[in-house]
């Protein structure tokens, strides 16, 4: 039996085991498989692990998307989570090449994926409070928001959660060093039903001017000497 003789349900099940590149390659072999590739049922979950993957045309965005994860763990991408004033020229050039990649992608998600239930961002150093605000506004069914090591996230995101996260049940802001204990407490008070986790966040040294940073480092060294 040829693969094209399988019914649509079987083909969808087969496609579900393939990665995005394999799905795209298989879809290019005939019109019937292309139709399966374009079926919204196939695209309820998307996982990305590098900036390049977000720019490919091997996936579809639409109302069927429920679970989205963008997790960057490579050493090169970690450069984006260094304070701008500490980056050398090479690091700044690298960051600039994909500075708006995730932000632009999330804007597209806001416009095309109103039924999103879960968003996980890890290591996305260029994502801003405004990005998360737009997601919360345009995806009213969002139940889980997990942010890890997203250095530009501040208390503004926490405030947006209290205003627009009516469906939210899980909020993680781990290793987001620019949020404060006050911001976390505000979420706890205004959204008691939200399971809040903020591992190593408000206790970390936030981004600041080099002068202030040096003062903190000197104070730490004195404490060690004592």
TrEMBL record:
GO cellular component: a single term: cytoplasm
Name of protein: FXL22 protein
Top-level division of the source organism's lineage: Eukaryota
InterPro entries: F-box-like_dom_sf, F-box_LRR-repeat, Leu-rich_rpt_Cys-con_subtyp, LRR_dom_sf
Gene3D superfamilies with a match to the protein in the record: Ribonuclease Inhibitor (3.80.10.10)
SUPFAM superfamilies referenced in this protein's UniProt entry, alphabetically: F-box domain, RNI-like
Keyword set, alphabetical order: Ubl conjugation pathway
